[in-house]
Amino acid sequence: MEIDDPKSDQILPKFSINVLQLLKSAQMQHGLRHGDYTRYRRYCSARLRRLYKSLKFTHGRGKYAKRTITESTVTEVRYLHMILYSAERAWSHAMEKRQLPNGPNASQRIYLIGRLRKAVKWATLFSQLCAIKADSRTSLEAEAYESYMKGSLLFEQDQNWDVALKHFKSARAVYEELGKYGDLDNQVLCRERVEELEPSIRYCLHKVGQSNLQASELLNIGDMEGPALDLFKSKLEAVMAEARSQQAASMTEFHWLGHRFPISNAKTRVSILKAQELEKDIHGPSADSISADKRLVIFDKIFSAYHEARGYIRADLATTGSAESVKEDLNGLDKAVSAVLGERTIERNLLLVKVAKSKLAKRHDDKNEKVTKPEELVRLYDLLLQNTEDLSDLVSSGRDRKVEEISFAEECENKRLAFRAERCFYVAKSYSVAGKRAEAYALYCRARSLADDALRKLQKLNGDSKTMAKELEDLGNECRSNSCIEHALGIMEEKKTHETLSERVSNISLTGAERLEKYLLEKLDVYESAVGDSNVKCAPRITGFPPAFQAISRNPIVLDLAYNTIEFPSIENRMKKDRKAKGGFMSRIFG
Questions:
Q1: According to a count of CB atoms within 10 Å of the terminal CB, is the N or C end of the chain lower?
Q2: Which pLDDT score is estimated for 155?
Q3: 496 or 75, which is more confident?
Q4: Which domain of life is it from (predicted)?
């Protein structure tokens, strides 16, 4: 892939490629929006195949014949596209190997680094050819692309951090300058690219020793999104896994409700430690600043870590011999991990309830999101009741129960009563929306009774439960106010029903000429709704359907009674005579 010397006697027009916009569009449309590097690699291969055929730059039939790309070869912009997509194919293949479920092994890692070297080779050729054949902006973007690929290779090799830092800074400087010019879309893309490069630069500074970043700050950097950050995230995850393994060596016991369960398996310790680190994010002082979507993602990671721990524990149980003490410890550890998993499930469902309540209070949503119905909250509280019952049964199982377990079971029972009151409240709300006043009134009263019972039992417990007590008090007050509203609406509707009935009866006509109520099209001059109350299901009176029959004129019916008595004249003399009936065979031949 050598470059010929430029010909001084030939002046060719400079090519122009918006490299960043071209790559970003291809990546987002072909898999990288969801991190699917396999799909993007296949797209690059198909795109290269089309370019080879259209440019007639194939490599022979049957036997492969290598064809180099030189300066004299590049006669149109598609040759530069071919080099660029070759680099992207090699890079996406390397990232595909990086995202294997258990990480690349030794041979796969060698192959991964080889593909990154190939990507650097193509990116260097692309930069050199753009410097000769393309305009200044394209050449600058190609240099930034080359610097990014070289930095990614050194980043993956875990060596020459100062050189990698230099390459990343060079790419960032180019994109910062390009972000000041051009159209608005290009400026936004350049700024996003600068933000994606920033974590890699900070990590390189951390490895060089010019930064005082802590592990928690590195995790916060890893929360950003973008294809340029996937290599950084995989590297960060490997570093955190190594740190957890070192920290797990000192973790020998799992504490739960006064019990201490020994942990002998190193994989179990790492999984539990990972879950506990994630729990600090949702229970720490900065938990309120985290959005609901990010907290749900953290909960999913916690569930995955605890499920891994349970899998390792049950695998140890299956391989354990007849040692009763080891089996008892493993069973206790399995019970403790399952109980913690149940607690986090309840917390996650409570977060979903909080989000649903905030949407329920909205009348008009600016983001065109679906507004929550009371039935959805009823379903969530059904899940919470099932989770609480399962957790209570799990904690109550066992012979020797400690004081902590008994108090925890009482808290679960009290939570169950509170969830029952909340569920009854939203069932009443759904009946109220349907216009069933009597059922809604009875359910509001029942919900208030359940809330009062839960509040009395909560006050007997010794614990910090001010938040739940406040919620139950608010629920009781809301139930009382809504029951009064439903009572009043029921009386008003019943009175209005009697008045409407008496008015309709007085308007009844024996001839049926008058209708009980006019349609909308007949009273357009009156400002009166034809749909009715939104809380009451009734048919709108816009126009009558099907339309009533109307009398129309018809042609008269004529009965011709004289037809049967008329004698018509004979017309036999005008009819043709049948010649076939006369004569024999010869007459038929000769006519």
A1: C
A2: 86
A3: 75
A4: Eukaryota
> Cis omega before residue 546 (within 30°)?
yes
Determine the average pLDDT of the residues in 17-22: 89
**C-alpha 483, offset from chain centre:** 38
423 and 386 in contact (C-beta within 8 Å)?
no
**C-alpha angle 250-252-253 in degrees, rounded to nearest 5:** 135
- The amino acid that residue 69 corresponds to is I
418 closest CA partner among 451, 466, 375: 451
pLDDT at 120: 93
**Distance from C-alpha of 96 to C-alpha of 99, rounded to nearest angstrom:** 5
Residue 202 CA to residue 287 CA, distance in Å, equals 24
What percent of the chain is predicted at pLDDT more than 90?
12
Mean pLDDT of the chain: 79
Which token pair is 359?
């949407």
Q: How far apart are CA 187 and CA 207, in angstroms?
A: 31
| Structure confidence by residue, pLDDT tens digits, 221-235 | 445 454 555 555 555
Q: How many CA atoms lie within 13 A of 445 on its CB side?
A: 9
**Nearest one of 298, 256, 297 to 279, comparing CA atoms:** 298
Concatenate the DSSP letters of all residues of 93-151 into one string.
HHHHHHT-TT---HHHHHHHHHHHHHHHHHHHHHHHHHHHHB-HHHHHHHHHHHHHHHH
pLDDT value at position 360?
79
Question: Do 17 and 77 meet the contact criterion of CB atoms below 8 Å apart?
Answer: yes
Query: In terms of Cα–Cα distance, which of 238, 307, 313 is closest to 268?
Result: 313
Check residue 46 and give its pLDDT. Answer: 93
- Residue 559 three-state SS: coil
Answer for the pair 424, 443: CB distance below 8 angstroms, yes or no. yes
Contact, 433 vs 483, CB < 8 A?
Answer: no
Predicted confidence (pLDDT) per residue in 536-586, tens digit: 566 777 777 777 788 888 787 777 777 778 888 888 888 876 655 555 656
User: Among 492, 372, 370, which residue's Cα sits nearest to residue 426?
Assistant: 372
Number of neighbouring beta carbons within 10 Å of residue 133: 22
The CA-CA-CA angle for residues 359, 363, 369, to 5°, reads 50
Residues 249 and 270 sit within 8 Å (Cβ to Cβ):
no
Residue 421 CA to residue 168 CA, distance in Å, equals: 58
Question: Which residues, 6+ apart, have CB-to-CB distance to 107 below 8 Å?
Answer: none
Q: Name the token pair of 3.
A: 């470059």
- CA gap 414, 418 in Å, rounded: 6
Those residues with Cβ within 8 angstroms of residue 189's Cβ, 6 or more apart along the chain or in another chain: 20, 21, 24
Element of type H or E holding 255: strand 253-256
